[in-house]
Specification:
Largest sheet: 6 strands, antiparallel
Strand content: over 45%
Number of strands: 17
Distance between the termini: 75 Å
Radius of gyration: 28 Å
Oligomer: single chain
Structural class: mainly beta
Helix content: under 10%
């Protein structure tokens, strides 16, 4: 039994912020065997949400049906495209192949799975970087907090709240951040106690829909001056 030279591949995986921008194109190809009259091919779409999720069969238009070659062809190539993919998600296609002789008898069948089309989360993702401080006089410091948007879309106004020695300071409002952008947020507040921790929270009200909410609140060592 020799390996069948059949192929199932992902030929295009297009990502984007809007569902209309996200699509995948899958291609299957198969050669005729000796005595083959017609070839059949079927694409089934599978989706996985989350890095540890399981693959689930997805019913979409024009998938899940058998496509048939014209009689007597030396090979068969077929392309399937699926639009408006969800994000974040992974997609792949399972392609089944069948060969039939002139009497309609099944000669052979095979199955291949394409590579994965990954659709990343399009939402913003606020994150907190390092903190430095300079003397502001009268026992106060000017804290400079680096805030990033690690996500794939822009974000509008949001607050940053600094807590020093257990006391929350008035929020500092950031006008917005582009995708991949960063800014320094300045807060004048009482000097933190050496060896203590300060707490920083971005978007404390949770008004922004983010790719991850787990990095919105952090503790940092009291910065030296």
């Amino acid at each position: 039994m020799f390996p069948l030279p059949v192929k199932a591949k992902l030929s295009d995986c297009h990502t984007g912020l809007l569902p209309a921008d996200r699509f995948a194109v899958f291609v299957g190809q198969m050669p005729a065997l000796q005595g083959t009259r017609r070839m059949w091919m079927r694409f089934d779409l599978f989706q996985r949400t989350g890095a540890t999720g399981s693959w689930q069969h997805v019913v979409v238009p024009k998938f899940g049906t058998w496509q048939k070659s014209l009689p007597g062809k030396p090979g068969f190539i077929y392309t399937k495209r699926v639009d408006e993919l969800q994000a974040p998600s992974d997609y792949r296609a399972a392609v089944r192949f069948r060969w039939y002789d002139a009497h309609g008898k099944l000669q052979r069948q095979s199955r291949r799975v394409t590579k994965t089309c990954h659709e990343p989360d399009p939402r913003p993702d606020l994150a907190i970087g390092g903190v430095t401080a300079t003397d502001a006089g009268a026992g106060r410091l000017r804290y400079s907090i680096r805030v990033r948007n690690d996500g794939r879309s822009d974000v509008g106004p949001f607050d940053t709240v600094l807590s020093v020695n257990g006391a929350a300071q008035p929020p500092a409002t950031v006008a917005g951040l582009p995708a991949g952008g960063a800014t320094q947020v300045a807060v004048v507040a009482p000097a933190c106690t050496a060896g203590s921790q300060i707490q920083i929270t971005v978007d404390p009200a949770g008004t922004i829909d983010e790719a991850s909410e787990t990095n919105n609140a952090v503790s940092r060592p009291c910065p030296g001056v």
